[in-house]
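Minutes, project check-in
Item: structure for the 185-residue chain
Input as provided by the requester:
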Amino acid sequence: MKYFLNRFLFLFFIFFSLSFVSKAQGEQKDSLSHIAKKRANRAALYSALLPGAGQVYNKKYWKVPIIYAGFGTLYYFIRTNNTEYKKYQSALVIRNDADTNTVDEFPTLSDQDLTVRKDYYRRNRDLSYILAGVLYTLNIIDAYVDSQLLDFDVSDNLSLHTAPTLFQSPGQQMKPGLQLTFTFR
């Protein structure tokens, strides 16, 4: 519960800060860009509150299973690595206690082997948590950028043509090159 409260407060702080930054930059005179900015902020907020919701808001439904597959995979790795970490940690504690009634689960492994395995699974668990945070952040960024590019013109009226050509250099020598031609219809 504390994790979710901290997460909510962090997101609230970020979006609260972003609202001041956008007001400090001045009012937009273009109503279309103002609407696009509001739409992008809303998509980012939806994705921050529920991963994948911003993609649904942008009508990019195919991205939602990818996001949840990533979170599911990371959840699996977090859970598995945490279980193994706790197993080796408790084995190390049991081995080093003074009680003679405890049974050693790993009699063939040395203390150093147990420590190395415990550290390995802890490191992998922590890395999985970091990757989950990166995936969460990328989910928000994707929703924001995709919403900003919703009105981007990708029609056939824009084109780029390339052609080989010869250019005359200042020393009156001809040099081969590549000519780029932009066509606006």
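Outcome recorded: The helical segments are 2-24, 31-49, 53-57, 63-96, 111-148.
No further action items on this chain.
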